[in-house]
C-alpha cells in the first residue's frame, strides 16, 4: 500500500512546490498605461528608464529639484578580461563589466572614444592585477575604491570633465 501511495504523495508535493515557486517568482505586472496616481506615474517612468538601459539606451540618473536630468549611465558593450599571472603562468582571470556615469549629452562621446577607453582601461586593470589588486580580498572597499578612482581618472584624461564616475557593475574572479 505504501509503495503505491509514496509516488503519488511525492508527485503532489512536487506539484505544490512548483506551483508555489511559480507564484512567488512570477514577474511584476506591467505598469498601467495612464496611472492616475502621481506616485504611480513616477514609478512607471522609473521602470521605463531601467528598461531602456537594458536595451542599450542610457538611462537617466540624477534628478535635480526641478526634475532636470544631470547625468546618464553608459554601459560599455563588452566585458573586460584580465589574466592573473603568478610565477610566469596564468593562475586565473578576472572578468569585469564597466559603466560610466557622464553628464547629459556626453553619451555619444563615450561611444566614439570606446576603443581608446577600452585600451586605457585594460592598462589600468593590468596594472591593478600586477600589483596584487585582484588577490585575496579583491572586493575590499578600499581596494575597489582605488580601482574605481584610477579608472575614473583615466576616463577623464580621455573624455574630459564630463565623466563623473566609472562604475564596476559586475566582477568575477576565476582561479585555475
Automatic annotation (TrEMBL):
Highest taxon of the lineage: Bacteria
Family to which this protein belongs: Belongs to the FliL family.
Keyword GTP-binding part of the UniProt annotation: no
Stated role: Controls the rotational direction of flagella during chemotaxis.
Membrane topology designation: Single-pass membrane protein
Protein name: Flagellar protein FliL
InterPro entries: FliL (IPR005503)
Claim: Coiled coil is one of the keywords in the record: no
Entry keywords, A to Z: Cell inner membrane, Cell membrane, Cell projection, Chemotaxis, Cilium, Flagellar rotation, Flagellum, Membrane, Transmembrane, Transmembrane helix
Membrane-spanning residues: none
Compartment annotation: Cell inner membrane; Cell membrane
Pfam family, one: FliL
Primary localisation category: membrane
Composition bias type Low complexity, residue spans: 37-51
Region named Disordered: 27-51
Amino acid at each position: 500500500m505504501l509503495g503505491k501511495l509514496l509516488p503519488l504523495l511525492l508527485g503532489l508535493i512536487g506539484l505544490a512546490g512548483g506551483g508555489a515557486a511559480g507564484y512567488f517568482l512570477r514577474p511584476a505586472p506591467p505598469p498601467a498605461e495612464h496611472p492616475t496616481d502621481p506616485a504611480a506615474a513616477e514609478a512607471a517612468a522609473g521602470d521605463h528608464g531601467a528598461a531602456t538601459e537594458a536595451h542599450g539606451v542610457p538611462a537617466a540618473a540624477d534628478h535635480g529639484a526641478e526634475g532636470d536630468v544631470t547625468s546618464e549611465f553608459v554601459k560599455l558593450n563588452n566585458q573586460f578580461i584580465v589574466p592573473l599571472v603568478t610565477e610566469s603562468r596564468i593562475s586565473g582571470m578576472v572578468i569585469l563589466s564597466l559603466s560610466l556615469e557622464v553628464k547629459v549629452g556626453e553619451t555619444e562621446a563615450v561611444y566614439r572614444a570606446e576603443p581608446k577607453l577600452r585600451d586605457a582601461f585594460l592598462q589600468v586593470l593590468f596594472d591593478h592585477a600586477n600589483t596584487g589588486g585582484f588577490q585575496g580580498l579583491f572586493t575590499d572597499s578600499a581596494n575597489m575604491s582605488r580601482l574605481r578612482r584610477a579608472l575614473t581618472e583615466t576616463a577623464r584624461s580621455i573624455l574630459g570633465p564630463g565623466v563623473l564616475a566609472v562604475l564596476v557593475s559586475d566582477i568575477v574572479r576565476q582561479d585555475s
